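User: structure tokens for this one?
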Amino acid sequence: MRMREVLVASLVWSAAWAADHSAFRVSYAGGTVPGLEARSDARLDLTKPESLSFVSKQTSIQVPYRKINTIEYGQSVSRRYAEAILISPFLLLAKSRKHFVTVGYVDREDRQQALVVRVGKSEIRSLLASLEARSGRRVEYTDDEARKSGR
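Assistant:
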């Protein structure tokens, strides 16, 4: 009896873990989603076969993959001036990279929409590969640095 309880508990835990980790953690950077503030934390779920889901505390949208017409990837690179002043001048040599993905799509009213999200560096490659595979669109890179790190 005890073994069965442990098995059921582990199955419930693993299902909850998989549900929580099947989506990419992103930060909404901008776009045309109404009622959503920049820098809002969200999840981008690409596990559904027909559409991607963007879910935040304020709103939730579904974008059918066939309606996606643009995928762009770019970086924002800056020096770490504040850290260099506060911690060490050697940090001036380090660069801070922020990874941004723009998904352009056509909504139900046939209007062009855009969703710009910031993605962590550990998730950018798998997110780009998933978007390409699901949508059938190639990622457009905004510069050579983005092309290097996106592949």
